[in-house]
Amino acid sequence: MLNDTIAALSTAIGEAAISVLRVSGPQALQIAGKVFQTKHPVSELAARVAHRAKVIDADGFVLDDGLLLLFRSPASYTSEDVFEFHAHGGLLVTQKILETLLRAGARAAEPGEFTQRAFLNGKMDLTQAEAVMDLIHAQSTLALRAAHEQLGGAIGREANALREELLPVLAHVEAYIDFPEEDISPDTGAALTAKMDAVLDRARRLIATSEQGRILRHGARTVICGEPNVGKSSLLNLLLGFERAIVSPTAGTTRDTIEEIIQVHGIPLRLVDTAGLRDSLDDIERIGIQRTQRELERADLILEIVDASLPASGAARIALPPEVRSRHLLLLNKADLGIAPGWENGIPMSCTCGTGVEALLDAIRDIVMRAGPLMADHPVAINTRHKSCFERLVHHVEAGRAALLASAAPEYVALDLREALQALGEVVGQIDTEQILDVIFSSFCIGK
Question: Which residues make beta-bridge pairs with 23?
Fold first, then answer.
């Protein structure tokens, strides 16, 4: 497929000031020569300079007058010959230009194919390719920072550093395989296990960032719950800064979950407003309450809000399993009316007056990112695929270390170390696993 020349619209579909069409491949410059009318022949145009150009269709009709930019191999995003045409951003004109490019010899690009070519041509490793989509999908400043770090190769450098630490250990063990009359001395064995321990420590610290990575990429699922009429929808509206949920003194107004995304200290939160928890004879309301229970089971953070102006003895509290208590905050709403006896260890606030919000946001930050915004020695939080690879690395290094300490045959130690190195290779894409590539690049948008 690398012999094909691909074309796609790289900006969003719809009316805009401009649209950008991108073409990459061995025939890119020839196609540009067929399609564009420029002051000088396309072959003579300077690279990385905007040139005025007209798009001419097969009938000689001028479709548009815009800017043409050339990027000659290997100094391009894909390492191939590439050109971009900046056209007027209308639906019809963009469609006609793309059709003209396809008739001139290009093929419609698959999702993520431009970035996939950049990876296959050695312009970036697999972690950097994944970072491209993380950058596009970032919903918070911390997620943006993490994507930039990954795009700069931070995870790849960590994987390569682990590889450099592990390769000498494997080489040492394999030397004993080649010379079976030699036994691994206790001193040598201790030195090798110390190196393995260093690899394990570094890998485990990387694995520890995976939960932060999930939150940065997808947001912390934050469920607002409590009895009817305690201020759940008011809290949602207050945090969002606009009226998203209906606020009414009538109990049971919220019957389904409402979901919105906000940023708290750079952390994305997926706020979920739920139906009030109570016994109800209304079938629709009961379904909403069942959904509330399911949301509580999935939550990264639970914001339980109560009417603190009423005595705590009469309030119906939610039953929290022990494993979620560390992810629970109690909000004492209506504190402007005075806090009744029995309420303690909560955050006083008033959704009506807007007080207590800063204390709430600080508490949310502290719970969601207990290790800090990003761990100081690992500025990049790994994703699920990276975690799986590093966990396999840890498993095989631990197995090799145990075999070494048990004075097993060096072949067994070497086998586990080779498996560990293979797991590291999969992190950056040094191992050709077509299935992994298909999964990663299928999530890209066309034109990227």
Answer: 7, 83
Contact 10, 98 (CB under 8 A): no
Identify the pLDDT of residue 290: 64
The predicted pLDDT at position 313 comes to 81
Report which of 262, 226, 229, 223 is spatially closest to residue 246, judged by C-alpha positions: 229
SS3 201: helix
Strand partners, 88: 18
Please state whether beta strands 62-71 and 107-108 pair in parallel, antiparallel, or not at all (unpaired).
unpaired
Q: Which residues of 343-379 are buried (b: 16+ CB within 10 A; e: fewer)?
A: beebbbbbbeeeebbeebbebbbebbbeeebbbeebb
User: Do 217 and 383 touch, CB atoms closer than 8 A?
Assistant: yes
- pLDDT at res. 316: 73
Are the CB atoms for 308 and 277 separated by under 8 Å? no
Domains of the chain: 6-124 (3.30.1360.120), 128-209+380-429 (1.20.120.430), 218-368 (3.40.50.300)
Residue type present at position 48: R
Report pLDDT digits (tens) over 105-136: 999 999 999 999 999 999 998 889 888 888 88
Residue 28: predicted pLDDT:
96
Residues of the chain with pLDDT under 70: 1, 179-187, 242, 244-257, 275-292, 321, 323, 370-380, 431-440, 443
Q: Measure Cα distances from 281 to 241, 252, 286, 289 in Å.
A: 34, 11, 7, 11
The model carries a pTM of 0.73
The 10 Å Cβ neighbour count of residue 169 is 26
Euclidean distance between CA atoms 396 and 404, whole angstroms? 12
Two tokens at 89? 């951003």
Q: Distance (Å, rounded) from C-alpha 310 to C-alpha 422?
A: 61
